[in-house]
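TA notes, week 10

Several of you asked for a full example with nothing omitted. So below is the full record: structure tokens for the whole chain, then the designed sequence directly under it. When grading your own attempts, check the secondary structure regions first.
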């Protein structure tokens, strides 16, 4: 009986974890593949972010330039409600990643 309860609870926990994660979508812009949650509104965010990525991030030569490019990208992601809810508030710029990437 204990084994059956354990199996049922484990199955319930696993099912809850699977259903709680958003389904991801892949959007390709200018040959760069973005993987984001399957929610409407990401196309506008990624179009603007990709333009900045092409201008600044691909060609940054120093650590300072790359951090500046990351700050610009973060401003774009913070501007749109669909992406702003996924930005973390970590203290280190290297730790600023989206929640679903952890």
């Amino acid at each position: 009986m204990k084994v059956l309860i354990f199996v049922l609870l484990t199955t319930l926990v696993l099912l809850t974890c699977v259903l709680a994660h958003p389904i991801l979508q892949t959007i390709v812009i200018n040959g760069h593949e973005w993987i984001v949650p399957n929610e409407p509104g990401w196309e506008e965010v990624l179009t603007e972010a990709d333009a900045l990525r092409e201008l600044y991030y691909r060609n940054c030569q120093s650590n300072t330039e790359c951090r500046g490019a990351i700050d610009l990208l973060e401003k774009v992601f913070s501007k749109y409600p669909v992406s702003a809810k996924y930005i973390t508030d970590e203290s280190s710029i290297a730790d600023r990643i989206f929640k679903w990437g952890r």
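Helices lie at 2-20, 42-57, 63-79, 81-84. Use that as a sanity check on your answer.
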